Amino acid sequence: MQLQVKVKPDSNGFYKQTMKQAYPSQEQLDPEKNYKMDDKEKGLMFLFNMTKDRKGSDVDVRNIQHVFTEIGYEIETHSDLTAEDLQDKLETFAGYARHHYMPSAVFVIMGNGSSTGIHCTDEPVTYKFIENKVSRMKYMKGKPKMIFFQGNREKAKEETEADIDMEISDASDLLVVHSTTSGNVPDRSVIRGSRFIQMLCKELLKNAHVSDLSTMLEQCKGPKEEQ
User: Fold this and answer.
1) Structure-derived torsion over alpha carbons of residues 80, 81, 87, 90, reported in degrees to the nearest 10
2) Into how many domains does the chain fold?
3) Distances (CA, A) of 7 to 2, 140, 147, 198, 203
4) What pLDDT is recorded for position 91?
5) 6: Cβ–Cβ under 8 A, 6 or more apart, which residues?
6) Does the pLDDT at position 57 exceed 70?
């Protein structure tokens, strides 16, 4: 029987629990059915956050850094960049030769946005630009690449549930997750950060050692939690 892992943030909204040891089955280790992800080093991660008009986003950053470090990712963090700087840093990161030795890559892009892109300090960078840059990474062919966009895609009424839009491209081994469907505005608590990042971090800490990512993301679609 698998013991339930209790996961709660502290009074400042930070998750501090450590990741449980995974014991994958032979089926989960089958390279014909699953990506090879049993190495201690899971890959490199690109984390970008826009802080303007986004109180509580610093909590998101710290929680993401903690959880993904626990999983086994090495994280490169940037904040408040111009559109050109973000594009340049994405291109540099995507071209790192170290990716050749890594089993996966993760990108977390957080900020205010529109239906087509994420706002930087001067102008937006389109989602398509980011997705194309990631899908064409030279050293990541045939390996899983994941992009998590956290932010509104249009101004509209406040959502009552954690809406998640997932797109999977088998051709480029790319998973793209938007924390809200187009037309919704995500909640954010000054203390706990955004609801999607809260739920994602909680779900990863609780179940990453026993569950697959798609199942955990489905759990993040649940009703709003009490703040």
Assistant:
1) -50
2) 1
3) 15, 33, 24, 11, 8
4) 97
5) none
6) yes
Q: Which residue has the higher pLDDT, 138 or 54?
A: 138
Residue whose token pair is 């490169």: 76
Pair of tokens at residue 116 = 């087509």
**193 domain-assigned:** yes
Q: What's residue 158's pLDDT?
A: 45
Owner of token pair 């980011």: 130
Which residues fall within 8 angstroms of residue 90, CB to CB, at 6 or more apart? 46, 107, 130, 133, 134
Residue 45 CA to its chain's centroid (Å)? 9
Distance CA 34, CA 22 (A): 15
User: What mean pLDDT is predicted for residues 23-43?
Assistant: 65
Question: The domain spanning residue 93 has which CATH number?
Answer: 3.40.50.1460
Whether 41 and 74 have beta carbons less than 8 Å apart is answered as yes
Question: What whole-number percentage of the chain has pLDDT above 90?
Answer: 42
Predicted TM-score (pTM) of this structure: 0.81
Of 99, 136, 132, 102, which Cα lies nearest the Cα of 117? Answer: 132
Q: Are 196 and 164 in contact (CB under 8 A)?
A: yes
User: Which of the 8 DSSP states describes residue 211?
Assistant: S
Q: Which domain holds residue 164?
A: 43-219
Q: Is residue 173 part of a domain?
A: yes
Amino acid letter, residue 132: N
| Domain annotation covers residue 31 | no
